[in-house]
Specification:
Order of helices and strands: HHHHHHHHHHHEHHHHEEEHHHHEHEH
Shape: globular
Structural class: mainly alpha
Largest sheet: 2 strands, antiparallel
Number of strands: 6
Number of helices: 21
Strand order of the largest sheet: 1-4
Strand content: 5-15%
């Protein structure tokens, strides 16, 4: 938790007039009051900042990183509301601000700041819609349901990208370039965030998702390269940089790597993270997000190469790796994952180790089917034998886990760097791409090797592309990037037909025989069992229900919900979903 005096300082712009606006509904307000009063204008915008979300333990459940089968057959249909983004109420509120602020009596400086934030918000909201569905009606004025023609047709995807960049360019011109971490305005959108986000938008525009017949050599890559190069160089010049310790990306708030964060502060605003990642015995119920064995294997070794790479210093067979998976790993593994027998000093408990073995671990922590335990685990459909450590506040006691209030890092400089690396590589500048990868891996603590490439396989554009994708998978783990990266690169086949697994641990004696559970429990109670005192086996998760992901080609663009189409006869459904609208740029 943050100290109260700190809380008041960082939230003043978001909380100073919230009580006033709470009296009146933001959907039905008096513009003459709001846009003639700076405090009320800021409060109006603060209500819209919820669009940026907050920490979510399940953000990567859609990928191989987290247990749970999201992609069951017909998860997405035209009838349900799964994976639909069509929030025109939010768009109307943003457009209302863009229109009304210019008619009020606020100073021009305040008007520009409000207008810049609102233009960015509009682009941010529409980008999600386009990312989901392709082209949408890009409405720029607040519509009146009684007077305006609400039956607006979809703009083409190309038109939408043009409008997105237009809004972002205007926002960049109006916003302050940089809001200092010591400012009471910290947490507001600034020009640097807008510049970095523009690079991300153009990366999507160039991507295979929108250019299926010419995925890697289309003309949009030049635009993406220029925008991401500018964002990288501009932010670098202003002092943005990777923090020295990967653990501190979020734990050290307002650091040099944070490009934009959502401000949390107990008791005013907390996030669902700590009590979602902790083992149940140290939380308020079972953990809701557990890393899979598939993801454990994807972390490189200390030399930057996979355990299965015969050229690596730590090459192991599958059988050997299962019994030694925690050894000689990329240091980000230790900083991101909790495993059986690992020292895990949660709730301030010095020397505590985490156990998951059935018959040894707490019933809210165990995972396995060991018959010697003579009991059944209740966690076989949700646990894996691993928990998330990344971004955890270990000092919080069990009673305090719902007080988690770390600022939510929505964009950080590492993403700006890897976006630039990706665009550079596709433009043939593999030197820049490789240098950025080296910097990311050097910060991670991977050894450089004799060639200084930190285990990266260098050669073709395709090899660097895969290296960047693999690096994003690890660097941004549990931050909600993985599925969307695979989708924009048209690599969802890497998820289709896959299953997920966990690892059961069973305590053993020195000769490899199973240790009597009475003895094992006694040793565990004193934290004397280490990783070496267990044998490991793989179990499929979940143990019941749907076990295989189904991710068809049609998921590169999601359909518009039938209920929306029924209300507007001028809307066309996407191709592949019974319609004729082409959501790509072709």
């Amino acid at each position: 938790m943050k100290k109260i005096i700190y809380t008041l300082t960082i939230l003043v712009w978001m909380t100073s007039c919230s009580d006033v606006l709470d009296i009146e509904n933001i959907d039905n307000y008096d513009p003459e009051q709001v846009w003639n009063d700076e405090r009320l204008a800021n409060a109006y915008l603060a209500n819209l900042y919820s669009m940026f979300g907050n920490w979510s333990t399940g953000a990567d459940r859609t990928s191989q990183q987290i247990a749970g089968i999201v992609w069951y057959e017909d998860q997405i249909t035209i009838s349900n509301d799964n994976f639909k983004s069509w929030n025109y109420n939010q768009i109307r509120l943003i457009n209302q601000a863009i229109q009304d602020v210019q008619t009020g009596t606020l100073s021009q400086e305040v008007k520009d700041e409000v207008l810049g934030q609102a233009l960015f918000m509009r682009a941010y909201a529409y980008f999600e819609m386009v990312m989901y569905h392709g082209g949408v009606p890009y409405i720029k004025v607040p519509q009146d349901r009684y007077e305006d023609d609400l039956y607006v047709a979809r703009n083409t995807t190309a038109e939408c990208f043009d409008f997105l960049i237009e809004d972002l360019d205007q926002a960049i011109d109006l916003l302050p370039t940089h809001i200092e971490s010591s400012s009471s305005d910290y947490g507001k959108i600034d020009g640097n965030f807008a510049l970095a986000f523009k690079g991300k938008v153009l990366l999507y525009k160039a991507s295979p998702q929108f250019n299926p017949s010419n995925p890697w050599d289309n003309s949009h890559w030049q635009e993406a390269f220029e925008a991401n190069k500018l964002a990288y160089e501009t932010l670098l010049e202003q002092g943005y940089a990777l923090v020295a310790d990967y653990s501190n990306v979020a734990l050290e708030e307002r650091n040099s790597e944070v490009v934009f964060s959502v401000i949390n502060s107990y008791p005013n605003k907390t996030a669902v993270w700590e009590h979602g990642v902790r083992p149940g015995s140290e939380s308020r119920g079972p953990a809701s997000a557990c890393p899979t064995w598939e993801f454990i294997k994807e972390f490189p070794m200390k030399d930057g190469k996979l355990y299965s790479d015969p050229t690596g210093a730590y090459y192991m067979s599958e059988a050997d790796f299962l019994q030694n998976y925690w050894k000689n790993r990329d240091p980000r593994f230790d900083k991101s994952i909790v495993w059986a027998g690992k020292t895990y000093e949660v709730s301030g408990k010095a020397g505590k180790r985490q156990y998951t073995a059935l018959g040894i671990a707490h019933e809210l922590d165990d995972f396995g089917i060991n018959p010697a335990a003579q009991t059944n685990s209740t966690n076989l459909d949700r646990y894996t034998g691993f928990f998330i450590l990344k971004n955890s506040l270990l000092n919080l006691t069990q009673a305090e886990v719902q007080q988690y209030d770390l600022d939510y890092v929505l964009m950080r400089f590492a993403e700006v760097m890897l976006n630039y690396a990706e665009a550079a590589n596709e433009m043939g500048d593999m030197t820049t791409a490789l240098e950025i990868l080296r910097q990311i891996r050097e910060r991670a603590g991977i050894t450089p090797g004799n060639d200084g490439n930190f285990g990266i396989q260098v050669g073709s554009r395709e090899q660097i592309r895969e290296a960047i994708l693999a690096e994003r998978n690890i660097e941004f783990c549990f931050e909600g990037h993985r599925f969307w990266d695979l989708r924009r690169l048209r690599m969802l086949d890497r998820l289709d037909g896959t299953t997920k697994h966990g690892v059961e641990s069973i305590a053993i004696d020195e000769d490899g025989s199973e240790m009597p559970l009475v003895e094992a429990r006694s040793l565990a109670s004193a934290y004397e069992l280490t990783e070496e005192d267990f044998k490991y086996s793989i179990l499929q998760v979940p143990r019941s229900g749907v076990k295989v992901s189904v991710v068809p080609e049609t998921y590169y663009f999601f359909p518009i919900q039938k209920a929306v189409l029924d209300r507007n006869p001028n809307l066309e459904q996407n191709e592949g979903w019974g319609g004729t609208f082409d959501p790509t740029l072709e």
